[in-house]
Predict the structure.
Amino acid sequence: MDEKDTMSALTELYEEIKNCRQCEIARYRTNAVPGEGAENADIMFIGEAPGWHEDQQGRPFVGPAGKFLDELLGLIGLKREQVYITNVIKTRPQQNRDPLPQEIVNCRPWLDRQIKIIRPKMIVTLGRYSMALFFPGKTISRIHGTAEKHDGILYYAMYHPAAALHQQNLREAIKADMLKIPTLLAQAKGIPEASQEPVSKQLNMF
Ligand code: URA
């Protein structure tokens, strides 16, 4: 896909997401929050679900967790416009409750299409819900800061910025994990496809 095709594919996708009413929560939203960022981004960040601020603006990670994400990106010299940011589900659940299994299932095709259009080199999962899609059965406290390559994409698990915002130990962990991203990305091509162990452990990179 060239740049123009990518853009129109994303624009089309956003329209479909905005018109989607598969889940009950669509009745209560102010805006759907499809995602945003560079259509040729190397890195895609996937959070959990829009919160109040995101619902108001129709943009992902624009509240306190988003401010922290911006700060984390700054640690590796990136601005949010240079990456792609989205969520597992595209509509805010009422009272910011956790996403329901059926909501995650209903929204999955949107995420798969975003990945197909953007073709990132690296997908960074933020928090448990996002991690569960790509590292099934794994525990965030064990695998954060480790990566696995599947079908040419490096999947990398991190804590959710909202969780790390007010807990000093998680704050340090999420910063350290963010700082590993440039090296991983630079080495991504040479990293073998996943077997049992997360690749960063196999290669003893960290
Ligand atoms: N938390 C998320 O998981 N996503 C957002 O967009 C904002 C907060």
About this structure: Residues 3-188 form a domain with the Uracil-DNA Glycosylase, subunit E fold (CATH 3.40.470.10). The first strand starts at residue 36 and ends at 37.
